[in-house]
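To close the section, here is one more complete example, presented without commentary so you can practise reading it yourself. The ligand is flavin mononucleotide.
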Amino acid sequence: MPVDQLEFRRVMGHFATGVTVVTTHDGAGKLAGLTANAVASVSLEPPMMLVCVDKKSDSYPAFGASQVFAVNILSNAQETLSRRFAKSGGDKFTGVGYTLGVTGAPVLSDTIAHLECRVRHEFDAGDHTIYVGEAVEISVRSEGDPLLYFRGGYRNLSA
Ligand SMILES: Cc1cc2nc3c(=O)[nH]c(=O)nc-3n(C[C@H](O)[C@H](O)[C@H](O)COP(=O)(O)O)c2cc1C
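Output:
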């Protein structure tokens, strides 16, 4: 019997993760980004990480166009930002603090840490594409607590 999609989502919801906003640009000045927890470090030599991006997301074409992305690791004070980037449509960046990084991808303000990457490999994976990027600029920006996601809801380390 094939695995039911909703059950797959429910089961994987038991895997607690941090929350990131993965940002990029389309190579012509338009910024894009989405909330993502399907991110992981992959390799140390060279330092590489992966992000899994839904082919149906509005942001998707920009990843292919620019071949760069920034992973912004959110703090527990950034749930509103996470919700904003988890909705398609509108200008997600209006009123949001950011600077453009060395890759041109937006690096969001007040995160815990960020990594900017240049895509080295990409893999077709069902309804998502896995982008594996080499980290070219990284930094820890605060020692604050992370925003967490578990069983379909936002959590804090202490709650
Ligand atoms: C906690 C959380 C984690 C998510 N992780 C991913 C992910 O790893 N990859 C992805 O493509 N979408 C993920 N999403 C869904 C996107 O954020 C959502 O589809 C968003 O609307 C896409 O925005 P866009 O269409 O403007 O690009 C996640 C959403 C939430 C709330």
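Once you have examined the tokens, check your reading against these statements. The mean pLDDT is 97. Residues 5-12 form the longest helix (8 residues).
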